[in-house]
Amino acid sequence: MDKQYCGYVSIIGKPNVGKSTIINSLLDKKVSITSRKSQTTRNNIIGFKTKKNKQMILIDTPGMHIKSQRTMNKILNKSAQSIIEDTDIILLVLQRLAFEKEDELIIQKIKNTNQKTICIINKIDQIEKKNKLLPFIEKLASFNLFDEILPISAKTKDGINQLEMLIMKYLPENRHIYSESDLMLMIDKDCEFMISELIREKIIRKLGDELPHDIFVEIDMFDEKNNLTEIHATIFVNRKSQKQIVIGSNGQILKSIGTEARIEVEKYLDKKVFLKTWVKVKKNWNTDSGFINSLGVGNNHESK
Ligand code: GDP
Ligand code: MG
Questions:
Q1: Least packed by Cβ within 10 Å: which of 68, 93, 231, 258?
Q2: Which ligand lies nearest to the CA atom of residue 19 in the structure?
Q3: d(CA 236, CA 138)
Q4: Which sign, positive or negative, has the C-alpha torsion 158, 183, 6, 51?
Q5: Nearest residue CA, atom 9 of ligand 1?
Q6: CA of 12, nearest ligand number
Q7: Which of 64-78, 184-198, 265-279 shows the highest mean pLDDT?
């Protein structure tokens, strides 16, 4: 039998550099995996992609969904080691021609590791003076830290194929962990967006002026079982006080938001839905310890 290659890939970088967009373009679609093999204890797998004898498994890096730089730094300080040790390949994402203090901090974290590191310069579609790109690449190369430096645009997909080829190239020799039957359901981005908007609408309708409208909802899992679709969603608020408002006393508010949203989502999907919601504070975590360990407050909304 052919040799098989398989490895874990993590992605780090400052907020807004395009990490999620890159993952989405690498994976084509967002996937959720239900049947986990006993050989892996991971629970932070975003998806995998198999091409012939090579399989890359993308894992969720703490801080990846965080849009606050301070929080990101904090998470990096706490968990950079585990991000690094747990993965075979690290993708460090920069944007345009910027290499900043925060990037320096990340670099310090990955300096003394044996992991393969690919430095991605994203958003090259937004670089006006293209002749500045080469000197920037040379500067990054002079750190002697990256196995590869690759300019891409996740938005226009320019360079995404090359990125995939580079990742495949650095995968270690291992048996594949996932087979196609582990890929239960693909949820396309429009569907994910619709569901998060349905939930958001219920929150705003219920709480109106009590909350700023910049709360957002992320779908963490979408899993279609026989006749029940299980969806996990995280509601992000700005402050701890808002988290309490969304939850309500004894969780009553969150419960009714969840129930109403679940009914709407069932109509939209035309399927029975089990909706699990969490509320998390997306900012000001610097005053609160244990972001990563915190699961927030949960609630289940089952079809009766
Ligand atoms: P993350 O915080 O690192 O996960 O960043 P996101 O993936 O959420 O992207 C942040 C913003 O940058 C979004 O508005 C994306 O649409 C945008 N973006 C991502 N990649 C590109 C790119 O290659 N070019 C341009 N012009 N915008 C991009
Ligand atoms: Mg993101």
A1: 68
A2: 1
A3: 39
A4: negative
A5: 18
A6: 1
A7: 265-279
Helices (H) and strands (E) in the chain, counts: 8, 12
More confident residue, 85 or 2: 2
Sole residue written with tokens 């929150």: 203
CA of 252 to the centre of ligand 2 (A): 30
Residue 38: CB atoms within 10 A of its CB come to: 5
Determine the atom of ligand 1 nearest the C-alpha atom of 152.
23
Q: Quick check: CB of 197 below 6 Å from ligand 1?
A: no
Can you give the pLDDT at residue 300?
54
Reduced 3-state DSSP string for 207-255: HHHHCCCCCEEEEEEEEECCCEEEEEEEEEECCHHHHHHHHCHHHHHHH
pLDDT digits (tens, 9 = 90+) for 225-243: 778 888 999 999 988 889 9
Q: Nearest to residue 53, comparing CAs of 156, 154, 202, 168?
A: 168
Residue 167 CA to ligand 1 center (angstroms) comes to 20
Q: Does residue 154's CB lie within 6 angstroms of at least one atom of ligand 1?
A: yes
Q: Which ligand is closest in space to the CA of residue 18? A: 1
CB of residue 17 inside a 6 A radius of ligand 1: yes
Inform me whether the pLDDT recorded for 138 exceeds 70.
yes
Model confidence at 283, pLDDT cuts 50, 70, 90, reads low
**Minimum CA distance residue for ligand 1 atom 10:** 16
With 80 as the cut, is the pLDDT of residue 188 above it?
no
Q: Cβ(123) to ligand 1 under 6 A?
A: yes
pLDDT tier for residue 215 given thresholds of 50, 70 and 90: confident
* Phi and psi, residue 50, nearest 5°: -115, 130
Query: With 70 as the cut, is the pLDDT of residue 184 above it?
Result: no
